[in-house]
Amino acid sequence: MRGVLRGAELLPLSKGRREELLALLSQLESMKPITQETTEDAKAMHPLITEEQSISATEEIQIVDELQVIDEQGVMILTEESTPTVPTFKTETEYHNYETLLKKLASKYYQGFQSGDVTVIGVRQFAQAQLERAQTKQSLMDTRLYATVAHCHQEIVSVAASGSKDGKPNPNTVINLRVDVLNRIKKAVNAEKEEFTITKELEGMEPFTIDYLTQAFESFRGGLVASFSSIAREKRESQGTNFLARRTSTPHACVSDLIEWAIERLRVLPSKAEHWREVALAIMLVTGRRPSEVLSTGVFEAIDQTNLEFYGQLKKKDASQDEKIYRIPALGDTAREVEAASGWLQMMNKRTVPASRNLEDKQEAAKKCHDRFSRYLSEIAAKILAA
Questions:
Q1: Residue 34 domain-assigned (yes or no)
Q2: How far is CA 248 from CA 234, 251, 319, 385, in A?
Q3: pTM (2 d.p.)
Q4: Helix (H) or strand (E) holding 90
Q5: Is the separation of the CB atoms in 318 and 279 below 8 Å?
Q6: What are the pLDDT digits (tens) for 146-172?
């Protein structure tokens, strides 16, 4: 009987499966044997992998990790650790964790902070001072917020410059950071503005309310936006130039070679997390899903070897609709490989999973995913296209 020798157990090996493995082994060397602990870790960190699916992923996809030699009787023999022949690429650049930086920046300029011997007043502190002056009928003239704007401008530019390869701030990055910082501060303002609101009554007029926190934020926002006017103009000009460049310099690629590479990458998952970019790109190529769907909101469940159930689509006509489940094909009969690869990304902490399945949480997770991963994916895509 022909079969797979794994430890002391001989598993039946069909003719079709044997031919498939022979084809794989002609292109791949064996990888380090997958252990029971690895399988258990994968199940623990990726709740979508059931016991049956985990066994299937181990036997059907990563069986090549344990195999190197086929004897004349068709028996697979376990061997020592070796390296796969699937081409791999290294991305050495490590970019900022912008999520952490943005939280820090927004908190600083909302609450205020000490910079050496200088106290930089925050939006909230400024609003509190204005409220107290109004209640005691003092002058509301206060220019300290201008210094806050100048500090914030300088820090945003510095963060953008430190995150670029050439040390120069990219206009797109600068403006995006500015927008994000302001949006985070505005969210804090909306949560607390009732505490900074007073009602005034003037003779001959209806009572009216003044929201000093919103007023302080709008003054800060207006000053910060104005301070970036020249950089915003650079961004608009560069967008036009970049758009023209994309229209006139379309990259050419052999699609069949790309798909073949993606299939091989999925059938032999890497043992190290550093190759997550290749795995994510391979899933995109065989499923056609967006980066944020693969690395954040999307869930892939194999129906058979060719088709998947997919949900977590980000762009749809009616955002109020409940999450829809789609039946999608996987090129190269890689449906089970795609499901296992998605679980591998989760296990390697390379997915930004939404807090819940509602639209707001999915959109927030997708944005974090874009900030966290987009540059790396662009780099690996360019390298693979050039290979």
A1: no
A2: 21, 10, 35, 18
A3: 0.55
A4: none
A5: no
A6: 999 999 999 999 998 987 778 888 898
